[in-house]
Write a structure and sequence with these properties.
The protein is of the alpha+beta class and 205 residues long. The chain is built from 1 helix and 6 strands; from the N terminus they run αββββββ. The protein starts with 24 loop residues before the first helix and ends with a strand.
Length: 205
C-alpha cells in the first residue's frame, strides 16, 4: 500500500508507513467513507426530488380534473337554474296577466240596479246613480192610438222609448239606450194607454 504522505510503497496489509510512520488505514477509510457518504446524499436527494415531483404532478392532475368537472357541473347547474327561473318568471307573468285580465273581465259586467213596471197611463221619477248605464224598456198598447207611448228620459238628453201611430199594429215594442254620467241623475218614466210596460236599468261594474 502506497503511503499518501511520502509515497513509500508498503505491504498491502500494513497499517503504518515503514518510512515516515504515517497511518495508512485512516487515509483509505476517510476517502472511502467520504465517497460513500457523498453517494448516499446524492441518492437520497434524487429520491426526495422524485417523490416531490410525483406528488405535485399527482395533486395537480387530480385537483385539476375535479375542478374542471365541478366547474362544468356548476356551470350547467347555473344555466339550468337561470333557465328555470326565466321560464318560471315568464310562466308566472303570463299566468298573472291572464288572471288579471280574466278578473277584470269577470268583475266588469252589466248589473241590474232597478226594475220598474206597470200599466195604464202615468209617470214615475227615479234616481239613477252615476256610471255607465244601460236602459231596456218595452210596452204593450191598449189600442193603436197616436198617443200611445212609453218614454224614458234624463236631464242631459239621454232618452229612449216606443210609441204607436193610428195605423201601427197593436203589439209589443222594445227599445234600449246607453249613457255615462258623472253624477246621480233623475229620470222620468212616462207611459200612456198601455196594457203593460217594463223598464230596467243596468250599470257596468
Amino acid at each position: 500500500m502506497k503511503c499518501s504522505k511520502c509515497g513509500h510503497e508498503n505491504k498491502h496489509n500494513a497499517k503504518f508507513c515503514t518510512k515516515c510512520g504515517g497511518s495508512l488505514i485512516e487515509s483509505g477509510e476517510d476517502a472511502s467513507t467520504s465517497s460513500s457518504n457523498n453517494s448516499k446524499y446524492v441518492i437520497i436527494a434524487l429520491v426526495v426530488v422524485i417523490i416531490v415531483l410525483a406528488a405535485v404532478i399527482g395533486y395537480f392532475a387530480l385537483s385539476g380534473g375535479d375542478f374542471n368537472s365541478q366547474s362544468s357541473a356548476d356551470s350547467n347547474k347555473v344555466q339550468s337554474d337561470d333557465k328555470s327561473n326565466d321560464d318560471s318568471g315568464s310562466a308566472k307573468t303570463t299566468d298573472s296577466s291572464k288572471k288579471s285580465d280574466s278578473s277584470k273581465s269577470a268583475s266588469k259586467k252589466w248589473v241590474s240596479i232597478g226594475h220598474y213596471s206597470g200599466s195604464g197611463s202615468g209617470s214615475k221619477t227615479i234616481k239613477v246613480p252615476k256610471g255607465k248605464i244601460k236602459v231596456k224598456l218595452s210596452a204593450d198598447p191598449i189600442l193603436n192610438y197616436a198617443t200611445n207611448h212609453l218614454y224614458v228620459s234624463g236631464p242631459n238628453g239621454e232618452s229612449g222609448g216606443v210609441d204607436w201611430g193610428p195605423t201601427s199594429p197593436v203589439e209589443q215594442r222594445s227599445d234600449s239606450f246607453k249613457f255615462t254620467s258623472k253624477s246621480e241623475e233623475k229620470f222620468t218614466i212616462d207611459y200612456y194607454e198601455t196594457v203593460s210596460w217594463e223598464v230596467e236599468f243596468f250599470r257596468y261594474q
